[in-house]
Amino acid sequence: MKPFMDENFLLHSELAEKLYHEFAQDLPIIDYHCHLDPKEIYQNRSYKTITEVWLYGDHYKWRAMRTVGIDEHYITGDASDYEKFLAWAKTVPKLIGNPLYHWTHMELQFFFEIFELLDEETAPIIWEKANERLVSGELNVRDLISRANVEVICTTDDPTDSLVYHQKIANDTTFNVKVLPSFRPDKGLDPHSPTFLTWLEKLSDVSHRAIHSYQDLLSAFEQRIEFFHQIGGRISDHALDHFMFIATTLSEVEEIFARILAGEQISETEAIKYKSYTLTFLAKQYAKRNWAMQLHLNALRNNNTRMLNTLGPDTGYDAMNDHLVAQPLVSFFDQLEKEQALPRTIVYSLNPNDNAKLATIIGSFQGNGIPGKMQLGTAWWFNDTKRGMLDQMENLANIGVLSSFIGMLTDSRSFLSYPRHDYFRRIVCNLIADWVEAGEYPKQIDRLGDIIQGISYQNARTYFKF
Fold first, then answer.
1. Range of 89's domain?
2. pTM
3. Is residue 227 part of a domain?
4. Are 336 and 398 in the same domain?
5. Beta-carbon contacts of residue 9 (< 8 Å; ≥ 6 apart)
6. Model pLDDT for residues 123-166, shown as the tens digit of each residue
7. CA proximity to 170, closest of 228, 237, 236
8. CATH code at 87?
9. Which of 67, 82, 273, 370 could pair with 248 as two cysteines, CB 3.0-4.6 Å apart?
10. Could you tell me if 344 and 257 lie in one domain?
């Protein structure tokens, strides 16, 4: 029986161990999609308790705690940090088969050098050990980032954001990690949102131009994209949970937008036309600047209305959607390809049933001499489990080219989440070693090492051109 979480955790053969330790273990991290706060990075936030850095805002953990019967008082309520930590300690031993069990202990080991298993009995001593490290000043935010060997962090930023903290970090010679913005214009793509007109006012303010027409809006978008570009942004990001695409004309969308500004109601079809034309315009801007475009599909958000009204969004009440994506996605890509304006694109679906179809779709639009121009995004959100990662990579290998894959991201709000990259790298090394052990690929160590290093780090470095 293998020991729990030793240096060869998840590595089931000598070849897997060799690939991991010699080629993957010490590589830097390019975290090209996350939800970290650049202000906290600039200010080098410190923490008084492990609950602050571990449980605040982590809806992965919150869902698990609710499922085992923890009262909301100890999750998002007014319980003390210690009580919330004890509630999490009570939950952890029940998480067999869940990556949260692995991540919990990887994070304790990697950042805190704590090797005890977390449960109700060990919770008091782990609480003391972890907090002692935190209050010592050894594990402030920048220490956590540096300890994890992070090279680039791409945050998620609205077009109206000032990016002031990105600029401050870039000018700080004491910190050599690149913290770059990602352009996420979701609030400007949903004219049915009750906050849409308010958001337009913010866009008008930051772009220093009145928005009285659709052309004004496009000019403001372009100005903000260029601003992000000057700060170092090279990626856009779109949450397109229910992705629809209808080809339309500029004149039709100008008329739709004029009615929106006048406060008139528009139909669902008209809203889709507005979104389709605007997204196409944005994609052309990305291609013009050699950006990469990320599309996140098939999330079903805020399912529990009572808890949404109580806690707000992003609190653990989302799920996978099953909306059909193939035809609208192909129409969108084809519209751009006709004009040779399709940017490098990464497509993620929260529904793993979409993996094979997405792999075939992106294969229809590869080219321009760019390795892996179109990417099947890494296993995301509910799928960043061992099985989810294997499913995504096996589909990509079966249908596309796994060796061109740009690898893992954290998609996290937690500065402790970087061991997920290590988790991913171990799984990649073991998967490839299994194929070699089964006689499905030759045991050419140098070539295997190149593939491992590409997926783990080098492909992303080449692809994004930060």
1. 46-139
2. 0.97
3. yes
4. yes
5. 102, 426
6. 999 999 999 999 999 999 999 999 999 999 999 999 999 999 99
7. 228
8. 1.10.2020.10
9. 273
10. yes
Q: Are 301 and 416 contained in the same domain?
A: yes
Residue 1 lies in a domain: no
pLDDT means per 10 residues, the chain with 466 residues, are: 96 98 98 97 98 95 98 98 98 98 98 98 98 96 98 98 98 97 98 96 97 98 98 97 96 98 96 98 98 97 94 94 96 97 98 97 96 97 97 98 98 95 98 98 98 98 94
Asked if residue 146 is part of any domain, the answer here is no
Total count of domains within the chain: 2
We report the CATH number of the domain holding residue 290 as 3.20.20.140
Domain end residue (candidates: 115, 139, 163): 139
- Are 71 and 35 members of one domain? no
Do 126 and 158 share a domain, yes or no? no
Q: Is residue 6 part of a domain?
A: no
Secondary structure in 3-state letters for the chain = CCCCCCCCCCCCCHHHHHHHHHHHCCCCEEECCCCCCHHHHHCCCCCCCHHHHHCCCCHHHHHHHHHCCCCHHHCCCCCCHHHHHHHHHHHHHHCCCCHHHHHHHHHHHHHHCCCCCCCCCCHHHHHHHHHHHHHCCCCCHHHHHHHCCEEEEECCECCCCCCHHHHHHHCCCCCCCEEECEECCHHHCCCCCCCHHHHHHHHHHHHCCCCCCHHHHHHHHHHHHHHHHHHCCCEEEEEECCCCCCCCCHHHHHHHHHHHHCCCCCCHHHHHHHHHHHHHHHHHHHHHCCCEEEEEECEECCCCHHHHHHHCCCCCCCEECCCCCHHHHHHHHHHHHHCCCCCEEEEEECCHHHHHHHHHHHHCCCCCCCCCCEEECCCCHHHCCHHHHHHHHHHHHHHCCHHHCCCCCCCCCCCCCCHHHHHHHHHHHHHHHHHHHCCCCCCCHHHHHHHHHHHHHHHHHHHHCC
**Domain check: are 96 and 233 in the same one?**
no
Q: What is the CA radius of gyration of the chain?
A: 23
**Domain termination site, one of 118, 139, 160:** 139
